[in-house]
Amino acid sequence: MNNKLFLFLSVIYFILPTYAINATEKNEKPFVIPEIKTWIGGEGQFTITPDTRIVYPANAPELKDIAAQFAADYKEMFAIELSTAEGKAKKGDIALTIAKDKKLGDEGYQIAIGEKVRITAPTAKGIFWATRTILQTAEKSHGNTLPQGTIRDWPDYALRGFMLDCGRKFFPIHFLRDYVKFMSYYKMNTFQIHLNDNSFKQYFNNDWDRTQSAFRLESEYFPGLTARDGHYTKKEFIDLQKLAEGLYVEIIPEIDAPAHSLAFTKYRPEIASKDYGKDHLDLFKPQTYAFIDSLYDEYLKGDEPVFRGKRVHVGTDEYSNRDTAVVEKFRYFTDHCIRLVESYGKQACVWGALTHAKGNTPVKSDNVLMGAWYNGYADPAEMIKQGYDLISIPDGFLYIVPAAGYYYDYLNCKSLYDNWTPAQIGNQKFEERHPQIKGGMFAVWNDHAGNGISYQDVHYRVFPAMQTLAVKMWTGAQPETTFEEFDKQREQMSEAPGVNIAGRVKPVVAPQGNRQPVLAIDKVQPGADTGIKEIGWGYTVEFDIAAAKEQPGTVLFSSDNATFYLSDPVEGKLGFKRDGYLNTFNYSFFPGEKANVKIAGDKEKTELYINGKLVETLDRQTQYHHNSTNDKYDKMYYVRTLVFPLEKAGIFKSNIGNLKVCVGK
What is the spatial distance between Cα 279 and Cα 260, in angstroms, rounded to a whole number? Predict the structure, then answer.
């Protein structure tokens, strides 16, 4: 054999195996939500130590704030305290730097992980999103390491949103604050808060005066307008927006009119329509416009308005189109509201309704953002032609109406992941990243007021949808990860730093593989803290009781979300209360009775076992409401689920012992 050929083959023989080994050692793309666009894997890990600093340049106040937020989140999630510093990064540091990069746009970023972590982006917003990627990546190692490699990432759509109907169901301010953090963690940047609405009168004996309605914001102009069963003060709403601004989430407040306006007409009966229903404003009366103008003035006037953001949603959906006169008046009202909020320096958002209300009265379209929710109400191709920018929020794909029996109870996440992007609006498919389709949004509508749904029930429905749609609005049409792998891994992800609305507790697994209680207490002391706030669906709570005579209202355990009673306030039975709904088991203890008690809960039901025997299941009830108009009965489903509260033991006389709380039955 030729010596040169022998030498060449020898080199190939030794090099190829080495190359193959090195290739297999390249780090895999980290699993984060939304999926990152590009990844070049390196070798080895970047280790985070107590000496790791988050470093930012001098005279960069936005990056200083982001560094502080990043450090606080790292400590919250991993109990690792990172210092922040101005200046130049050294080996082992995490460096934040603004750098021009046309490809990355307004929200994109690059992360180079080597001997140091270098985060660069054209804007502070991009830097912030990069810190979310690092936090999610670090979840795999409990915050200790990051895989070396380079990430380049940017969104396909600028607006990635969620809308929550707070009008028909009140969500406390702490829930909204947690949702800002939750959305931010998944790079969802727009939170539309639907501040007023009303339920359907057929569930209230067809009596508008008895039908649930609410306006959820404090009003000084109209003090009696604000809902008494739950509302936000102006300060709370301002502080919520300030929190959101720091986490790069825009809040769009919505005042819905001229339909869905029963809260307004109950307060001012003279502005109610006599022709189209009391939930419709009378668009032919000057008093209607004076009221609406004053309402917006209260929240938009001055240098520090209550509505702080750049956009305000003026509603304008589902008004009657019975005759030409009302159609033209509806179009006039829509145009009036658009120009009204623009006069305060805001961009107007509307629901699509102008195919339903097709007419001759002009409605401003330039710089108006329209929610394209149903093509029969607003044909998206025609709306684009007229000059509207669109938010893709098709009801047939993206509407959750909890326990209603129509639309979705839980979104079809597999179908959305595999097939949908904001370019799909109903049965119309547009080009990806169409310049007039600004992004997408999904919605929770709480149509059935009084159906027992808690805000944690709502969250369990939103959580998988938020994760799925975060991918489809950021990563786009073809993520590399299959849905099956995505669905498996997403369940391991946190909600956000310091947020656990679902009450998820990781199961404890013994060395032999058996699951152990996540909480075990030999004797529960009245008034004691347990160390666990609550436990989410798929739990069992078991204890032994030597019962004493308890006063009605005696609490076993409570959290700020729920209360579980040894003796409920009405009948003295075992039961629970959350979101104002009291649900009881048909069981109470005799004084001196000894028993083993087990409560098991999942997404459908809450069960009570006594001495190992199932006593009662509180599952979904079907309720019937008489409709006096047609002498028929309208059906509503009533939900009796529970995320079990554990945070604090009540003050009871009974002896409670051998408490075991487990994940799973």
Answer: 5
Close Cβ partners of 104 (under 8 Å, ≥ 6 residues apart): 110, 121, 122, 126, 152, 154
Whether 27 and 102 map to the same domain: the answer is yes
Model confidence at 382: pLDDT above 80? yes
The string of pLDDT tens digits covering residues 175-230 is: 999 999 999 999 999 999 999 999 999 999 899 999 999 999 999 999 999 999 99
Each residue of 432-464: pLDDT tens digit? 999 999 999 999 999 999 999 999 999 999 999
In the chain, the amino acid numbered 67 is: A
State the greatest distance between any 2 C-alpha atoms of the chain, in Å, as a whole number: 105
- How far is it, in rounded angstroms, from Cα 413 to Cα 19? 40
- Residue 501 domain-assigned (yes or no): no
Phi (first) and psi of residue 149, to 5 degrees: 160, -175
Q: Which residue has the tokens 């309704």?
A: 353
- Pairing between β-strand 632-638 and β-strand 621-627 as defined by DSSP bridges: antiparallel
Share of the chain above pLDDT 70, in %: 95
- 463, 534: one domain: no
Residue 86 scores a pLDDT above 60: yes
How many domains is the chain built from? 3
Q: Does the N-terminal peptide bond of residue 34 adopt cis geometry, omega within 30 degrees of 0?
A: yes
- In sequence order, what E strands does 158-231 have? 159-165, 190-194, 196-198, 213-215
- Report the relative pairing of strands 347-351 and 369-372 from DSSP bridges: parallel
Neighbours of 239 (CB within 10 A): 14
Q: What is the 3-state secondary structure (H, E, C) of 59-75?
A: CCHHHHHHHHHHHHHHH
Domain boundary among 490, 516, 540: 490
What's the CATH number where 240 sits? Answer: 3.20.20.80
- Indicate whether 639 pLDDT > 70: yes
Cα separation, 422 vs 418, whole angstroms: 13
Q: Is residue 496 part of a domain?
A: no
What pLDDT score was predicted for residue 18? 36
Q: Does 344 lie in the same domain as 284? A: yes
Note down the domain range covering 101.
3-153
Residues 292 and 197 in one domain: yes
Instruction: Supply 328's token pair.
Output: 């033209």
Q: Which of 128, 153, 178 is the last residue of a domain?
A: 153
Q: Dump the DSSP string for 383-439.
A: HHHHT-EEEE--HHHHEE-TTSSSSBSS--HHHHHHH--TTEETTEE--TT-TTEEE
- Is residue 612 situated within a structural domain? yes
Q: How far apart are the first and last CA of the chain?
A: 72
CA–CA gap between residue 257 and residue 280 (Å, rounded): 8
Indicate whether 290 and 359 sit together in one domain. yes
Shared domain for 78 and 175, answered yes or no, is: no
User: CA distances (Å), 158 to each of 151, 422, 530, in order?
Assistant: 20, 11, 44
Write out the two tokens for 660: 């075991």
Comparing CA positions, the residue from 68, 66, 81, 74 lying closest to residue 142 is: 74
pTM for the model stands at 0.94
Q: How many CA atoms lie within 13 A of 98 on its CB side?
A: 14
**Which pLDDT belongs to residue 665?**
64
Which CATH number does the domain housing residue 580 bear?
2.60.120.200
Same domain membership, residue 169 and residue 139 = no
Give the tokens for residue 410. 């839980």
The span from the CA of 482 to the CA of 323, in Å, is 50
How far apart are alpha carbons 212 and 147 in whole angstroms? Answer: 53
Mark whether 573 and 634 lie in a shared domain. Answer: yes
